[in-house]
Amino acid sequence: EASKQEREATMRAFRGGKLEILLATDIAARGIDIDDLTHVIHLELPDTVDQYIHRSGRTGRMGKEGTVVS
């Protein structure tokens, strides 16, 4: 498990364009708000429709296009 400092550094690197891919668990994904996120890839389908919508809703915000792969 990553420390809080490691998670924060990873998010800064991703937002700053130094990382192209961010892999996150459902717990980590809660509260993540990243502008212009283009893709969400579900490695495993969530247990509920609400969880699926929550995960998938991380892309395609503010009228922009986004891609979800399940």
Automatic annotation (TrEMBL):
Q: Give one GO molecular function term.
A: hydrolase activity
Can you give the residue ranges of the Helicase C-terminal domain? 1-70
Q: Name one GO cellular component term.
A: cytosol
SMART domains registered for this protein in UniProt: HELICc
Pfam families in the record: Helicase_C (PF00271)
Matching InterPro entries: DEAD_box_RNA_helicases, Helicase_C-like, P-loop_NTPase
Q: Which Gene3D superfamilies match?
A: P-loop containing nucleotide triphosphate hydrolases
Q: Which UniProt keywords apply?
A: ATP-binding, Helicase, Hydrolase, Nucleotide-binding
Q: Which CDD domains match?
A: SF2_C_DEAD
GO annotation terms (biological process): response to cold
Tell me where on the tree of life, at the top rank, the source sits.
Bacteria
**What is the official name of this protein in its record?**
ATP-dependent helicase
State the organism named in the record: Bacillus cereus
Q: Which taxonomic lineage does the organism of this UniProt entry have?
A: Bacteria, Bacillati, Bacillota, Bacilli, Bacillales
